[in-house]
Amino acid sequence: MAKCPICGHKWTYRQKVLGYALKPRTRTKCPDCKSYIEPSTASIIVDYVAVLSLALLVFIGIPLMQLPMGTSVMLTGALILVYILGVIPLTVRFKQYDYKIKTPG
């Protein structure tokens, strides 16, 4: 399960879906300590692999099945829902990164 690296707050499934998966940004606030955290590198890699797999299924797999249009659209929607409600919340891990920014002077 996803856990805040600062305060140790364990995110619930609902918090991961509503607070992370449905918001298109790279960092998010912890609901407990309100500090900004980012997904770990491993989570980002898993996300890229899942998106590429989904794209291959939608653009190559489903057309090769030669299903009726309505069925193809419903199958595509189901795959997208599985990605948003299953893959993202169940694979996300958070990490706090320390960016070394040089100050002028």
Verbal overview:
The structure is a single chain. This protein is mainly alpha-helical. The chain has one domain (13-95). Helix content is 54%, strand content 8%. Strands 1-2-3 form a 3-stranded antiparallel beta sheet. The longest helix is centred in the middle third of the chain and has 25 residues, at 41-65. The protein is elongated. The chain starts with 12 loop residues before the first helix and ends in a 10-residue tail after the last strand. 10% of the residues are buried.
Number of helices: 3
Number of domains: 1
Structure classification: mainly alpha
Largest sheet: 3 strands, antiparallel
Task: Classify the helix fraction into a percent range.
Answer: 40-55%
How far apart the termini lie comes to 43 Å
Poorly predicted runs: none
Count of beta strands? 3
Morphology call:
elongated
Order of helix and strand elements from N to C terminus: HEEHHE
Task: Report strand %.
Answer: 5-15%
Strand order of the largest sheet: 1-2-3
Mean pLDDT: 85
Radius of gyration (Å) = 18 Å
Quick description:
The protein is 54% helix and 8% strand. The chain is mostly helical and 105 residues long.
Write the layout of secondary structure elements.
Elements: H1 13-21, E1 28-29, E2 36-39, H2 41-65, H3 69-91, E3 94-95
Antiparallel strand pairs: 1-2, 2-3
Keywords:
105 residues, mainly alpha, 3 helices, elongated
